[in-house]
TrEMBL record, chain A:
Residues 1-26 form the signal peptide. It comes from the Eukaryota. Keywords: Endoplasmic reticulum, Glycoprotein, Membrane, Signal, Transmembrane, Transmembrane helix. It is found in: Endoplasmic reticulum membrane. This is ER membrane protein complex subunit 1. Residues 631-837 form the ER membrane protein complex subunit 1 C-terminal domain. The chain crosses the membrane at residues 805-824. The lineage of its organism: Eukaryota, Metazoa, Ecdysozoa, Arthropoda, Hexapoda. Belongs to the EMC1 family.
UniProtKB/TrEMBL annotation, chain B:
It comes from the Eukaryota. The chain crosses the membrane at residues 72-97, 117-136. Belongs to the EMC4 family. Pfam families: EMC4. Component of the ER membrane protein complex (EMC). Keywords: Endoplasmic reticulum, Membrane, Transmembrane, Transmembrane helix. It is found in: Endoplasmic reticulum membrane. GO terms for cellular component: endoplasmic reticulum membrane. This is ER membrane protein complex subunit 4. Its main location: endoplasmic reticulum. It is a multi-pass membrane protein.
Length: 838, 171
C-alpha cells in the first residue's frame, strides 16, 4: 500500500516536472547566432614559434595555459587546446616545433613531462607522456630546447639529450654563478644563462655580457630598439623593419615573440621577415614589411569589470525628447516650439532626400543609436591589464579601445570599479562613466572619467587622487546635470566626493568596510556639518571567530538597479506572505578551518545600516569556492560538500510574514521583526564557476539563476526549482495549489536550458546581466577565456511578437475581409433595389 | 367544456355522440350542479381587485420562492471554474439585476388604482437576496477580489530611507 502511494507521489512529481520543463524555452535551430555571438581568445602569449616550413601559422602557448595555432594571414585560431591550469603539474613550460612541423611538444610540471601533438589538428599523439625524473630537476632552473633538456644546478649546466639512446648527460661548469636560465627564441640549441649566451652543441659561450636577448637567429641577435616615435627591429646592426606609427590602442612596450625571415627575391642580401610581437597589455601583433597585419586583443581573457549602457538617441528622437522636456513653458511658446521642430523635421527630410542633409553624428555613423527595444547596448569592459574596451552588444565589434596606464586592481583581490555616473537617458547630456583603480606606482587611487559611447575622456580624463582608496561608492542622488557623484573613503576614513559640488549630498549615507583577513566589518555613517563631511563609526562586527581563523571570502549585496515588482507571495489559502525586502541587507560568507569539521562555511545576512545580523547559517565540512547571488528576498550559493563529495546549492528566502510592518517606507533603524526564513539545499551535478540572476527593467518578469559551469556551459535555472519552499513541511495539496514542485534533492540540468548550446565558453570567470528595454528580455554576457553574449527571456517573450509572426497573412486577410464586406454591401443594395422593382 | 361545445365551428364533426348523452343521466344524490357556479359568481362579484392583489403578490414573492431552487443548483454546480458553473453564476447574477431594473414594468398591469409599493419592495428584496446568493457563489468560487493576494500587484514597493554601500577594504 505504502509502495503504491509512493509510486503515485513520484508520478505526480514527475508530471509537475514535465509541466515545468515544457515551459522552458529552448533555442530553435534557425535561431543559432541570431542574437548571440561568441568570440574566442587564447590569452597573453608566453611562447610562440612560427611553422618552420611555411610560416603561415604560429604555434603559441599562453598564460592561460592554452596551446593554439594562429593563422599568420588574419590571426584566426586554427586550433586551440585548453590545458588545465594546475600550478604543480599542468603548466606548459616549453614549446618546441619539430623541423618537419609535424608535431608540437610541450613540457609541463616539475618532473618534465613531454607531450607531443599533431601540428595540423592539435590532437595529442600518444596517450602517455615521456617523463624525465631526476633529483636535480627543479621548477625554474630547467629548460627544454630542441632535443636537449638543460638544467642549471648550482654552478653547473647539465644538458640531457632526449633523443639519445642512453641518458647522455653532459656538464659544463660556469665561469660566473648565475641564477636564471632563459630560452633564446628563434634558434634551437642556444640558451642564455645569466649574461652569457651558450651554444648547447659544443657548450661554448657565444656572447658575453648581454643584458637581455630577445631572439637569436642565424647566429645573430634580433633586437627591438625604440628611437623617437619609431620602433626598429634590428638584426645585429642591420635594420630589418621599422614601425613608424603604432596605433594608440596598443601599448608601445613591445616584445618579440618569434621571427621568420627569408631572403628577398629581388634584392639579394636583404631579408623579408615576419614578426610576432606581444605587448604588455596582452595584445598580439603580427608585423610584416613594416606594416601591422593584424592585432589580437588578448587582454579580453581577463575581464575585471563590465557595465552595459544604453546607446544615445538618434538626432530625430533627441529632438522629440527635447521638445517634451520643456514642460514649464506656457501654451503659446510650446506651440511655437512644436511647429518649429516639425518644420525642422520636414526640412531635414527634404534635405535628406536631396542629399544635402547635415552630416550624421559620430554615433549615427558608427551605428551607435538606440534601437526601439533597447537591445543594442554598449559594453564597457575593463580588463586586468588596465586596457578598456567599448564593445557593441549586437555585433561584438570593438568601437573603441583605450589603455589606462598604471591602472591596476585593488589589493585583496578586488576588481577595478566601473561606475555609471549618468546614463544615456538625459538626452542632450551624454552618458558618463568612471573607472576607479589603484595607481601601480604610488598605490593611491586613480580615476578616469569618460564617455562610454565614444570612449572619449571627460574633464581631462585621468585624475590622480592624493590618497589611498578604502572604499568607493556611487551616491544615490544625482546632482548637477543629473550627474551622480562618487564617494571615496580614504585610508584614514576621510570622506571625499567627486565632483566636490555634491559634497552636501553625502549627509546620512551609510557605508561599511570589511577586512578580509581579520573578519572585522565596520559600519560608518557620514555626517555633513559646516561644509565638511566626516565619517562616524557606528557599529562593528567580528566574524573571524576565535583566533581570526575565519576569513571573509565573499560579500554579496543586491544589484542597485534592481526593482521588485511583487511584494509578496500568494499562498494556497490566497493570503499573502510578504517578502522581506531589505535594501541594506548584505550576505557575508566566511570560511575557515575547524578542528572537528575540517572546513566550515558560515553565511551571515547583515543589515549594514543597523549592523544587526538578520540570519546566519553554518555548514560543516564544506569547502569553497563559494559562488553567491543575492537578490530581492533570496540568496543562492554553491559550495563543495567534502563529506559527501558533491557540489551543493543552497537557497534561502526571507519573508516578513502575513502582514507588512510598514507598507510605505523601509527603514532599517526601525526595529523590524526578524524575518521568517525558508531554506533548502539541493545537489547540483556540475561544479559551478559563476552564478548570476537575471534582471529586467521593472522586475515583473520571473527571475532565473544563470549557472556557469566549469564545463563551459551556462544553464538557466528556473526559480521554481531552487525555491526553498520546496520542502516536505507543506502538504502536497498545498504545494500543488501554490505551484511548488515537490522536493527532489537533485537539481536537473536540462540540455534545453543551456543558453549557450554548443558555444562553449571556456574557463568561465563571470556572468554579467543587464536589463534591456523590453521587460521580458535580459541581456547576458558570459566571460572567461571567451566572450559570449546572448539574451534570455525567463518568462518567454510575452511583450514581443514572435519572429515568425505572419504579418503578410494577417494583413492580407484583414484587407481581404474589409474589401469583401464593402463589395458584398454594394451587391446587397443592388439586389434590394431589383427586388423592389419586381 | 361547456363553452367549447357551445361554439359551433364551420367544420366540426362530432363523432363521439355518446358524450352528450352523459348529461342526460340524473345527477347522483346530493350533487347540486349549480352550487359551485354560484360560489364563484359570488367571489367575482365581491371584489375584482382582490384577485389583482393576489396575482401581484404571486409576482412579488416569485424571486423569494426561487431561492431554495437556486441554492440547490448552486450546491450541485460545485466550486470548480468551468464553463457551466460560470454560465450559471452569470445567469443568476444577471437575471435578478434585470428584474430589479424592470420592476415598474413588471408591476404595471397591477397598478390600476392600487397601491402595490409593498409588493414592489418585497420583489426588490427577493432579487437582492438572489444577487447576494450569486455573489456568495462567486466568492466561494474565488472570483471576487476579496483577499489580500488579489491586490498584491498594486502594492507599491517600500521607499527606502537609508542608503548604504560598501564592501571589502580596498587597501
Amino acid at each position: 500500500m505504502k509502495n503504491s502511494f509512493n509510486l503515485i507521489n513520484k508520478l505526480a512529481s514527475f508530471l509537475i516536472i514535465c509541466l515545468v520543463f515544457a515551459s522552458v524555452n529552448a533555442l530553435f535551430e534557425d535561431q543559432i547566432g541570431k542574437f548571440d555571438w561568441r568570440q574566442r581568445y587564447i590569452g597573453k602569449i608566453k611562447f610562440a614559434q612560427f611553422d618552420p616550413v611555411t610560416a603561415d601559422r604560429a604555434f603559441v602557448v599562453t598564460e592561460e595555459n592554452v596551446l593554439a595555432t594562429l593563422s599568420s594571414r588574419n590571426g584566426d585560431i586554427l586550433w586551440r587546446r585548453i590545458l588545465e591550469t594546475d600550478e604543480s603539474r599542468g603548466l606548459v613550460r616549453f614549446l618546441y616545433v619539430n623541423k618537419d612541423s609535424k608535431s608540437v611538444m610541450r613540457r609541463t610540471g616539475e618532473e618534465a613531462d613531454v607531450f607531443e601533438y599533431v601540428a595540423n589538428t592539435g590532437q595529442q599523439k600518444t596517450a602517455t607522456s615521456s617523463k624525465i625524473t631526476a633529483g636535480w630537476i627543479t621548477k625554474d632552473k630547467c629548460l627544454l630546447t630542441g632535443n636537449s633538456f638543460v638544467c642549471l644546478v648550482k654552478d653547473q649546466l647539465l644538458v640531457l639529450d632526449l633523443l639519445a639512446n642512453q641518458n647522455n648527460v653532459r656538464t659544463k661548469a660556469l665561469d660566473s654563478p648565475a641564477n636564471d636560465i632563459k630560452l633564446i627564441l628563434g634558434q634551437d640549441g642556444f640558451i642564455q644563462v645569466g649574461r652569457q649566451v651558450i651554444s648547447l652543441s659544443d657548450l661554448r659561450v657565444v656572447f658575453e655580457n648581454r643584458k637581455l636577448v630577445n631572439v637569436f637567429m642565424d647566429n645573430s641577435l634580433i633586437q627591438l630598439v625604440k628611437e623617437n616615435n619609431e620602433i626598429k627591429i634590428k638584426m645585429d646592426e642591420q635594420e630589418l623593419t621599422t614601425l613608424a606609427d603604432l596605433p594608440e590602442t596598443i601599448d608601445n612596450n613591445l616584445n618579440i615573440l618569434c621571427v621568420k625571415c627569408k631572403p628577398k627575391k629581388d634584392n639579394i642580401g636583404q631579408l623579408a621577415c615576419r614578426f610576432l610581437l606581444s605587448t604588455d597589455d596582452g595584445a598580439i601583433v603580427l608585423v610584416q614589411q613594416s606594416k601591422i597585419k593584424w592585432i589580437r586583443e588578448e587582454a579580453l581573457t581577463r575581464i575585471d569589470s563590465v557595465e552595459l549602457l544604453d546607446l544615445t538617441l538618434s538626432d530625430a528622437q533627441g529632438a522629440i525628447e527635447e521638445e517634451l522636456n520643456n514642460q514649464d513653458a506656457d501654451i503659446w511658446s510650446s506651440l511655437y516650439r512644436r511647429l518649429h521642430s516639425q518644420y525642422g523635421m520636414v526640412k531635414n527630410i527634404v534635405l535628406h532626400v536631396l542629399g544635402l542633409g547635415p552630416p550624421p553624428s559620430f554615433s549615427e555613423r558608427a551605428g551607435l543609436v538606440r534601437d526601439d527595444f533597447g537591445l543594442h547596448k554598449m559594453m564597457v569592459i575593463v580588463t586586468e591589464s588596465g586596457k578598456m574596451f567599448g564593445i557593441d552588444s549586437v555585433s561584438g565589434k570593438q568601437h573603441w579601445v583605450r589603455i589606462l596606464p598604471n591602472f591596476t586592481r585593488f589589493p585583496n583581490d578586488q576588481s577595478m570599479k566601473v561606475l555609471v555616473q549618468r546614463t544615456s537617458k538625459y538626452y542632450p547630456l551624454s552618458a558618463q562613466c568612471a573607472v576607479i583603480a589603484r595607481d601601480k606606482e604610488t598605490g593611491n587611487g586613480i580615476l578616469y572619467e569618460f564617455n562610454p559611447i565614444s570612449g572619449q575622456p571627460i574633464n581631462g580624463g585621468i585624475k590622480k587622487l592624493g590618497y589611498k582608496i578604502q572604499q568607493v561608492s556611487l551616491l544615490h542622488k544625482s546632482g548637477e546635470n543629473f550627474l551622480r557623484a562618487i564617494l571615496f573613503i580614504d585610508d584614514k576614513n576621510g570622506v571625499h566626493v567627486q565632483p566636490e559640488t555634491s559634497l552636501a549630498m553625502v549627509d546620512g549615507f551609510f557605508f561599511y568596510v570589511a577586512n578580509k583577513n581579520t573578519g572585522d566589518v565596520t559600519g560608518y555613517q557620514i555626517q555633513f556639518e559646516n561644509n565638511e563631511a566626516t565619517s562616524l563609526p557606528i557599529w562593528s562586527l567580528n566574524l573571524g571567530g576565535t583566533d581570526n581563523e575565519q576569513k571573509i571570502t565573499a560579500i554579496a549585496a543586491k544589484n542597485t538597479i534592481e526593482r521588485v515588482h511583487s511584494q509578496g507571495r500568494v499562498l494556497a489559502d490566497r493570503s499573502v506572505l510578504y517578502k522581506y525586502i531589505n535594501p541594506n541587507l548584505i550576505a557575508i560568507t566566511t570560511e575557515g578551518p575547524d578542528a572537528v569539521h575540517k572546513n566550515i562555511l558560515n553565511v551571515y545576512l547583515v543589515d549594514v545600516v543597523s549592523g544587526s545580523i538578520v540570519f546566519s547559517i553554518n555548514h560543516r565540512r564544506v569547502k569553497g569556492p563559494v559562488k553567491i547571488v543575492h537578490s530581492e528576498n533570496w540568496l543562492v550559493y554553491t559550495f563543495y560538500n567534502e563529506k559527501i563529495r558533491r557540489n551543493e546549492i543552497t537557497s534561502i528566502e526571507l519573508y516578513e510574514g502575513k502582514t507588512q510592518t510598514n507598507s510605505t517606507v523601509w527603514s532599517s533603524l526601525n526595529s523590524t521583526p526578524l524575518p521568517l526564513v525558508e531554506r533548502q539545499t539541493f545537489i547540483i551535478s556540475s561544479s559551478v564557476a559563476a552564478l548570476r540572476e537575471t534582471i529586467t527593467e521593472k522586475g515583473i518578469t520571473n527571475k532565473h539563476v544563470l549557472i556557469g559551469m566549469h564545463s563551459g556551459a551556462v544553464s538557466e535555472m528556473s526559480w521554481a526549482l531552487l525555491d526553498p519552499r520546496r520542502h516536505s513541511m507543506i502538504s502536497p495539496e498545498k504545494q500543488r495549489e501554490e505551484g511548488i514542485i515537490p522536493y527532489i534533492p537533485e537539481l536537473p540540468l536540462q540540455h534545453e536550458s543551456i543558453i549557450n548550446y554548443n558555444q562553449t565558453v571556456s574557463k568561465i570567470s563571470g556572468i554579467y546581466t543587464a536589463p534591456s528595454g523590453l521587460e521580458s528580455t535580459c541581456l547576458v554576457l558570459v566571460y572567461g577565456l571567451d566572450l559570449f553574449v546572448t539574451r534570455v527571456s525567463p518568462s518567454k517573450t510575452f511583450d514581443l511578437l514572435k519572429e515568425d509572426f505572419d504579418y503578410f497573412l494577417i494583413s492580407t486577410v484583414l484587407i481581404g475581409l474589409t474589401s469583401a464586406s464593402y463589395i458584398v454591401k454594394h451587391l446587397a443594395a443592388k439586389k434590394a433595389i431589383k427586388q423592389a422593382w419586381k | 367544456m361547456s363553452k367549447l361545445s357551445s361554439k359551433k365551428f364551420k367544420w366540426n364533426l362530432e363523432f363521439n355522440t355518446k358524450s352528450n348523452k352523459n348529461s342526460d343521466y340524473a345527477s347522483p344524490p346530493g350533487y347540486n350542479l349549480s352550487a359551485g357556479q354560484h360560489h364563484s359568481e359570488v367571489a367575482r362579484d365581491t371584489d375584482q381587485s382582490q384577485l389583482i392583489i393576489k396575482k401581484s403578490w404571486d409576482v412579488a414573492l416569485g424571486p423569494v420562492k426561487g431561492i431554495p431552487m437556486n441554492l440547490l443548483i448552486m450546491y450541485m454546480a460545485g466550486n470548480s471554474i468551468s464553463i457551466f458553473p460560470i454560465m450559471m453564476v452569470g445567469m443568476s447574477l444577471i437575471r435578478p439585476l434585470k428584474a430589479i431594473f424592470t420592476t415598474s414594468q413588471t408591476f404595471k398591469s397591477f397598478e390600476i388604482n392600487q397601491n402595490i409599493a409593498l409588493q414592489k419592495f418585497i420583489f426588490f428584496i427577493g432579487n437582492l437576496i438572489n444577487i447576494g446568493l450569486a455573489l456568495y457563489k462567486c466568492h466561494s468560487m474565488g472570483l471576487l477580489p476579496t483577499h489580500a493576494s488579489d491586490w498584491l500587484a498594486f502594492v507599491d514597493p517600500q521607499q527606502r530611507i537609508e542608503f548604504s554601500d560598501g564592501g571589502i577594504s580596498l587597501i
